[in-house]
Amino acid sequence: MPRWLKITIGVILSIIVVFIIGGFFLYKMLSSSLPEYNGEVTSQHISSDIEIYRDSMAIPYIIAKDDEDAAFALGYVHAQERLFTMDLARRAGAGRLSEILGSETIPFDLMFRTVGIKRMAEMIKSRMDNHSLKILEAYSNGVNLYIDQAKGHYPVEFDILNYSPYKWKPLDCLIIGRMMAWELNVSWWTDVVFSELVQKLGEEKVKEILPDYPENAPYIIPSELKKLPLISTNFMDTDRKFRKFIGIEGTHLGSNNWIVNKKMSVSGSPIIANDPHLGYSAPGKWYAAVIRSKDWNAEGYTLPGVPVFVIGKNQNISWVLTNIMLDDADFYVEKIDSSGKNYFYDNKWYPLQVIKDTINVKDSSSVPFKIKITRHGPVISGIHPYKVLYPDTKIDTSAVTMRWTAQDYSDEFTAFLKINKAKDWKEFKEAFSTYAVPGQNFVYGDNKNNIGYVFGGKLPLRADQNPTFVMDGTLSKNDWKGYVPQNEIPDLFNPPDNYIASANNKTIKNFKYHISNLWEPPSRIERINQLLNSKQKHSVSDYMKYQMDFVSPYAEKLTGYILNAFHNIKITDSNLKLTIELFENWDFEMNQYSQVPAIYAVFFNHLLQNIYKDKMGHDIYNEYLFTTNVPYRSVMQLMEKPDSWWFDDQATSRIEDRDEVIRKSLSEALTDLENRFGKDLKEWQWGKLHHALFKHAFSGFSSIVDNIIDIGPFEIGGDGTTIFNTEYPFYESIEKFPRFRHSEFENNLGPSMRYIYDFSKPDEFYMILPTGESGNIMSDHYSDMSEMWLHGKYLRIRTDNVSILKEKYHSRIVKR
Fold this sequence. Notes:
By secondary structure, this protein is α+β, with helices and mostly antiparallel strands. It is built from 25 helices and 31 strands. It has an eleven-stranded mixed beta sheet, covered by helices on one side. Strands 4, 5, 23, 27, 28, 29 and 30 form a seven-stranded antiparallel beta sheet that branches. Strand 28 and strand 29 (about 765-770) form a beta hairpin. Helix 5 (about 115-125) packs across helix 8 (about 170-185), helix 18 packs across helix 19 and helix 18 packs across helix 21.
């Protein structure tokens, strides 16, 4: 053997040995952060010993003598599995990300300090009852037990960023709760875009593409809107970048829920189901748990950082949620004098409230700034790059403020705590006395065979019933007049239809007050109604199939227009001819293995471009498409107006109509797919374009690391109009997906969990998460539910005492 070869082999073997040894020590270091599921820890902050059992999927079953000890244990297990994401969430809401991440996150900190998430939490805490505070304090003590115990062995994210978490406080729980309201604030995205469109294109043209429903009042576009200067949509950039950073992308921020009563149930008892649609991340949003204590006996889904079950059941009732899509925020253009100390309102000057604050930045100088507040809310011009010049030359400073329901007092934590313990419909309804945000449709069932619905949220009372646009803040007529009295908002109890369902649709018809115009397209609720009316009685196994359903009534309607556009048209292209034949025989299932959904989805993207882009321009076009329910509904409205101006191509001398644009869009889609996959249509399966990936907060820095910390990608079916919601973005300005070429069809939002409960079997329910219980990338439970979630499999969770005591792991927290 040549000497050079011996040397080369020796070097290679040495490198391999180094890597093996290094890998071993790296593995040992990373593994040291894994939580112990067996064993014993002690604490002086509990009244008696606590038992924690875990099943094979690491779902905890907490047995405690009282509610405070149960909250303590929940805090401890939350911290064991999700400490980093909990810390990131509270830091984001408090405006403290830059302390650990540096100058890149200064805009995020500025945004949330200005909006005032922490100020809202402090207001809530100052008015909270003693029992709720004790639960929050006990929970915080549980989190802090783990923070103290794990020092030096925190999850790897803390090591990479070189910091340790500060002690948990009750205020942190309330911050995380308000951050959930922020995530579901859909009004943030639309008012300014619609206003800019009106200013650019005029009222009549824009009215045609604003989402509306037949029973709504006609749009009232404020006359003063025309007098305001041109509005910029740049303000949305900061929040969009934050959402991408934190892993809450996607705008179909809704859900499906439904319940049938005993008359429609195979078991003879109500059956309830839920699957909230939220942005994908690793770990996911929810953490499943079971609690048994003196007065708190509940199970279901918790939000790490908050000690309540948000969705789930107790021994008497079950409750599930969908987003109301409530319009709970408005924007005002304010007039501020040249000193920057006063604002103009109803012909008088009033002093601004000023708060001085400072953002501390890692490895950099701190950033001092001022928060200015009018009667409408905080001046957000620092995060909204909005330039306004009033005709009065003496006034050279202006501002935009935001009025948001969450700025007013409400106590969602106490409301949920009461819901967790409610025994019947009366106690359930009474729990909502302190509830406001985020607006949620609560669907209810109980062990007495009752079913019901509650509108969970405060509804702003406005003089103008269509507050879709930016308003003049100098006029009191544009102010909110308080809130709609709760007794005027109807609820529903044991309806004659024998079932209740909601899917972010308009649930209250012919209502005199404005709720929203940001409903989801009716496709999902139509399909749910189809399924629930397809047979006399339904079972848990039926529900499992329904939650995985990929049929789109929306696609069915739009396909009708496609086929009509090609009626009596001579077709010479072979792929186009085959496509029309496929559309004629399509069952409208967005199956990942089928070619038709791929053609349909690519066609829809080209249709959007051909309708809107040349009239709006690139930037406004992307902002208009960002909230995806808006273009979905707008397109269907325009289909009923074949000669609308929106179908005319501004670059040609001809006047195009609807059918010409449809034919052009389908032709472009086929060319697009041929360029991607070749001319053989058999290769055009939807799953090759449409993927789901659950991304870690550190995703995107290295493809090698991404393969470890991200979960997926998975080929997937569906779209934003199917019950199994697999939304993908329509807007163009997205970063390329690192794992596959066709990033414009990235599935970035969908079922963040699934839940099914049959009241005939009170000691079990069915659930699944898209990732796993753990947020630790080294854990076996980081991604152990993903394949099950993808393929419609469920875990059956047994909650009787005998089953709990047989679970795989057992640990104790012992009173010291």
